[in-house]
Amino acid sequence: MRVILLGAPGSGKGTQAALLADALRIPAISTGDMLREAVDAGTSLGRRVEEIVASGELVDDATMAKVVRTRLDRSDAASGFILDGYPRTLDQARDLEGVLDELDEQLDAAILVEVPIDEVVRRSIARGREDDTEDVVRRRQEVYREQTEPLIGYYRKLGLLRPVDGDQSIEQVHRAVLSALPMESR
Ligand code: AMP
Q: What is the edge-to-edge ordering of all strands in the sheet holding 161-165?
């Protein structure tokens, strides 16, 4: 099962990615977590992306393609994965297709966690991550609208889009995500 999770920052897709990973016994891969770990560890990648991540802007597509390719090459991702926070631009979606083509793999679904804008802003501020200042939260929403929302149409055209109502309890959203997956994989 190869799934990507789409949704605004604060939609709860990170939480849902973790629950889904447990349910399907495949890794949840969060590019945001990977970048934050690189920053904390002070690697060369971390030093390069630190300011970008702190500002709410996007790291460039070529860097992200390398990060994701390296991660998907690891053996634990061979039987499936859940991508949380990637792709975030149309070019990243094409890069992902390229990586999967090389591995002779295909996406099974793009789950869209839908939550009203007021609620995502409230949740983003409530989770209180240290990079979640009000300006950065607002900027991330803008970046999502401008750069990531076009992916909704892209995956709809491919017949992979599965919208889920994310404005419910964590457990209810989890059940909705499971029912949105293609039948054979549940
Ligand atoms: P997240 O934890 O998914 O909200 O990601 C935190 C930050 O990491 C984002 O605001 C971006 O600066 C960076 N980031 C994570 N994933 C990507 C991506 N796919 N493309 C570009 N930047 C990313």
A: 28-30, 81-84, 2-6, 109-114, 161-165
Name the pTM for this structure. 0.94
pLDDT tens digits, 78-113: 999 999 999 999 999 999 999 999 999 999 999 999
- Structural domains in the chain? 2-181 (3.40.50.300)
- Which ligand 1 atom sits nearest the alpha carbon of residue 55? 12
pLDDT in tens, 130-153: 667 788 888 899 999 999 999 999
How much distance in Å is there from the Cα of 100 to the middle of ligand 1?
A: 20
Provide DSSP, 2-16.
Answer: EEEEE--TTSSHHHH
Residue 140 CB–ligand 1 contact under 6 Å: yes
Mutational test site, ligand 1, from 6, 30, 35, max ligand atoms within 8 Å of CB? 35
Question: Ligand 1: does its nearest atom lie under 6 Å from the Cβ of 24?
Answer: no
Rounded to a whole number of angstroms, the distance between the first and last alpha carbons of the chain is 9
Identify the band that residue 68 occupies on the pLDDT scale cut at 50, 70 and 90. Answer: very high
